[in-house]
Write a structure and sequence with these properties.
alpha/beta, 11-stranded mixed sheet, 15 strands, Rossmann fold, globular, 16 helices
Length: 496
């Protein structure tokens, strides 16, 4: 049973009552535990159910975010600094009212390469979406880095952070009715690592059963998945850096020391123009096979799906990577050979025709953007269409003229949440505020419409058809428009 008090909204879950706050007409519940704190003996264990409490638990203030290093994309997105602790398995819930209504639910899984970020960051505030769309928005915090994704036999099984996400989805499916949400209409949305995560939910039947719709933004489509052997090797390397001689020492190792060693390992294992860190999801044979995409496609054929990416994904990485900025042409040619072998020269010629710029760095950006994001987006949509269940597909093209970050990775997020006051992002610097607000309404209303009906079309946009054989794609820009095959899949021969 849920009540709305005169002073603050109160929602009653199976574990007890939560007292939130009302901000700008939206009820907000913060630091909502969906699992027991993974501390002490529960470090490196799968999430356990949260303990019950007596009385009303104060849910008006944020708890800590997961232990993590500084974001590697802070040069593009801006920086953040909040208290960190392993007691981080919490949700933030925004709702028009904690009542008996059954509103669509949008669960947000943040990106950050499974290394940084938090669903409770102001960037991801669901207040505007909840108020404009009469939907319930849920931000998810989960374990990151080695604490969430290390695989080391005898210490940590793989994919603990994924198990955290699944536990959050299960909690929401059971409890969201107390917050005015409809457990039978849950949309899981995520960007980058979060996009990978929501595709993973499609791939696992038990999780797919709880989801009605999926939005995958700039998902790497399985390309961050590691083998068990490779993951265990990284776990052993981290253990050596920490000077740990026996498994029992892991429980007493301060989280800050683990994160510091993780940073050293990340730097030591970094490869030229390769953005994948050492601790990511693992093909464990339980959740994911060696290739998770066939299972995700099977799940997508039973659900409503929207997928997309930004036009200049890699600009966020390449603009701040000194090795790339100063790379010799032969080094960039080497990356083309990695993908295309003997056809590397022909592929570079083709990329010089399709890239927006002609410098070796810009060709590399196009190649790696295709390899990590665009190629997977369109291939997934094509394969889904072949199964008779075409997706809605978008590309985010808006960029500030002259801004080096262009339409980079993460650039669509402020528009999805339509909360520009929360951002001091270099990737938005110089943008026209009026044009940004107009596009923010277009984008957010599309996400709301999709969460409601599975169709992102609305009065403020041109009609948005499904992808289909003509590869119809919504390009978000000024103006937004639908284009057939904007990536040139029917024209270009070489794709990684």
């Amino acid at each position: 049973m849920t009540v709305q008090s005169d002073s603050a909204p109160v929602a009653t879950t199976d574990c007890g009552a939560l007292r939130g706050t009302v901000e700008d007409g939206v009820a907000v519940f913060r630091n909502v535990p969906y699992a027991a704190p993974p501390i002490g003996a529960l470090r490196f264990q799968r999430p356990r159910p949260p303990a019950a409490w007596a009385g009303e638990r104060d849910a008006s203030a944020h708890g800590p975010i997961a232990p993590q290093p500084p974001s590697r994309l802070r040069g593009a997105m801006g920086d953040f600094s909040y208290p960190q602790a392993e007691d981080c398995l919490t949700l933030t819930i925004w709702t028009p009212a904690a009542d008996g209504a059954r509103r669509p639910v949008v669960m947000w899984f943040h990106g950050g390469a499974f290394m940084t970020g938090a669903g409770s960051l102001p960037w991801y505030s669901g207040a505007t979406m909840a108020r404009r769309g009469e939907v319930v928005v849920v931000g998810v915090n989960y374990r990151l880095g080695a604490l969430g994704f290390m695989h080391l036999p005898g210490v940590s099984e793989p994919n603990l952070g994924i198990h955290d996400q699944f536990a959050a989805l299960e909690w929401v499916s059971r409890q969201i009715g107390a917050f005015g949400g409809d457990p039978s209409n849950i949309t899981v949305a995520g960007q980058s690592a979060g996009g990978f995560s929501v595709l993973g939910m499609l791939a696992v039947p038990k999780m797919r059963a709880l989801v009605r719709r999926v939005i995958a933004q700039s998902a790497p489509f399985g390309r961050m998945l590691r083998s068990m052997a490779a993951a265990a090797d990284n776990g052993r390397k981290l253990q050596e850096l920490l000077g740990i001689a026996s498994p029992g020492q892991w429980s007493d190792m301060p989280a800050a020391d683990i994160i510091a060693a993780q940073v050293k390992l990340t730097m030591a294992t970094a490869q030229f123009a390769n953005a994948v860190p050492p601790f990511t999801p693992v093909a464990d044979g339980e959740l994911f096979g060696d290739d998770m995409i066939p299972a995700a496609l099977a799940g997508a054929a039973e659900r409503d799906v929207m997928v997309g990416h930004t036009r200049d994904e890699m600009a966020a990485f390449l603009a701040i990577d000194e090795r790339v900025k100063n790379a010799a042409p032969e080094a960039i040619g080497g990356r083309f050979r990695d993908y295309f072998g003997a056809a590397a020269s022909d592929a570079m010629t083709e990329y010089s025709q399709r890239a927006r710029g002609s410098s070796p760095k810009e060709l590399l950006g196009e190649l790696t953007g295709d390899a990590l994001f665009a190629g997977g987006t369109f291939e997934f949509a094509e394969r889904l269409d072949a199964l008779g269940r075409p997706a809605h597909v978008f590309r985010f093209d808006w960029a500030v003229p002259g801004n080096a970050f262009a339409a980079c990775h993460c650039s669509e997020i402020p528009f999805v949440f339509n909360n520009f006051d929360a951002w001091q992002a270099p990737m938005l610097a110089g943008g026209d505020p009026g044009a940004m607000r107009t596009l923010g309404v277009q984008v957010q209303d599309a996400w709301i419409a999709f969460a409601r009906s599975g169709d992102p079309s609305h009065a403020g946009l041109p009609r948005w058809p499904r992808f289909g054989g003509e590869r119809q794609t919504m390009l978000f820009d000024t103006p937004s428009r639908v284009v057939a095959d904007p990536a040139g899949r029917s024209r270009w021969r070489y794709w990684p």
